[in-house]
Specification:
four-stranded antiparallel sheet; 17 helices; alpha+beta; about 55% helix; about 350 residues
Length: about 350
């Protein structure tokens, strides 16, 4: 979802402004052009858009980017308590694997700009950090921030953290590479093909000290409700989404929707682009949300889920689901109900 449509708590910006102040950058300069006033900044219940936070990050990079490891310094300020119900849901998770699954499922409730993913192979749980969608001027800062925040999260979930087998980053080795080594407990590689941290998979299913299954379920419900409120679409995109939800088993094409809305197809496409989305993105959004719901709350066979979402065959649904979540629908169901 475009940054302009992703809403989040202002707490993250509070942390960035505090960091800026400690390096001599006044709040007004840190907030310049973001549309965030001091009244909004002072109220932790206020919500802003990811685009507004991105502007603040850009201001910090422009003014303080000469400071080595500024992103790492920023990320270490992010504790689970700063994330509200999302952080509490992770803290209540029975295992690291379940916490990671919750983190990814509700990642838009965090402050991350990096898109995290998981890959398991050869006894490793690899945490992938995709920064390709982040604007170039803030990419390094936000990658370092979100990486350091991830390390903090792991340490708070399990005292001492999880054994790190290795890590790699797709940028040149910085002069402060020793800070990466200290945080990881392992020597990272640089100039690599991707950004990732490799954890020992033998530890990811061990019980976490503060795990509470009942509390975790309550937190998940609140996460679901909060995400739904934040992702409500308006304008033309909202109308299209509502139409798609009306009968997802018979998903209409853009020509049908445009005709029902008394618009030319070209005009509908243009309006959706203006709202930073597309017809295909909205179809995927609706199908993904419904797929997650059907897989976890309805006792339906895979074929039935695929049919209810308008797929002519299960294979097409499986392919789409793997593209959305990185795992198969049945693996996702097993994780959610396990």
């Amino acid at each position: 979802m475009p940054y302009e449509q992703v809403r989040r708590s202002v707490v993250s910006v509070q942390l960035l402004v505090q960091l800026a102040a400690e390096h001599g950058l006044q709040a007004a300069a840190a907030l310049e052009g973001s549309g965030i006033g001091t009244g909004v900044l002072a109220d932790p219940q206020q919500e802003i858009t990811a685009a507004q936070e991105l502007r603040v990050a850009g201001n910090l990079v422009e003014a303080l980017g000469h400071i080595p490891g500024l992103g790492l310094e920023a990320g270490l300020r992010y504790h689970l308590s700063a994330y509200g119900i999302w952080g509490f849901a992770l803290l209540s998770s029975p295992t690291f694997r379940s916490a990671a699954d919750i983190a990814l499922r509700y990642l838009d409730l965090s402050y991350a700009f990096v898109r995290f993913g998981l890959r398991e192979q050869r006894g490793q749980l690899q945490v992938l950090m995709d920064d390709r969608d982040i604007p170039p001027d803030t990419r390094r800062f936000l990658l370092e921030r979100d990486f350091a925040a991830f390390i903090n999260m792991v340490r708070e979930l399990r005292p001492g953290g999880l054994p790190v087998l290795g890590a790699q980053f797709a940028f040149r080795r910085p002069a402060y590479a020793g800070r990466y080594r200290e945080m990881l407990g392992a020597e990272p590689l640089f100039d690599a093909a991707e950004n990732s941290v490799w954890l020992d998979a033998a530890y990811v299913d061990a019980p976490l000290p503060q795990g509470n299954t009942v509390m975790a379920r309550m937190c998940l419900e609140q996460c679901s409700q909060l995400l739904a409120r934040r992702q409500v679409r308006t304008g033309v995109a909202g109308k299209v989404r509502d139409r798609l939800l009306r009968n997802p088993g018979e998903m209409p094409g853009i020509e049908t929707v445009a005709e029902e809305m008394h618009m030319a197809v070209r005009s509908l496409r243009r309006r959706l682009v203006e709202e930073d989305t597309s017809f295909r993105a909205l179809v995927d959004e609706v199908r993904q949300a419904l797929a997650e719901e059907l897989l976890t709350t309805a006792k339906l066979k895979l074929e039935e889920v695929a049919y209810r979402l308008g797929y002519s065959e299960p294979a097409a649904f499986v392919h789409a689901f793997k593209r959305w979540k990185g795992i198969s629908p049945m693996a996702y169901r097993a994780q959610r109900l396990g």
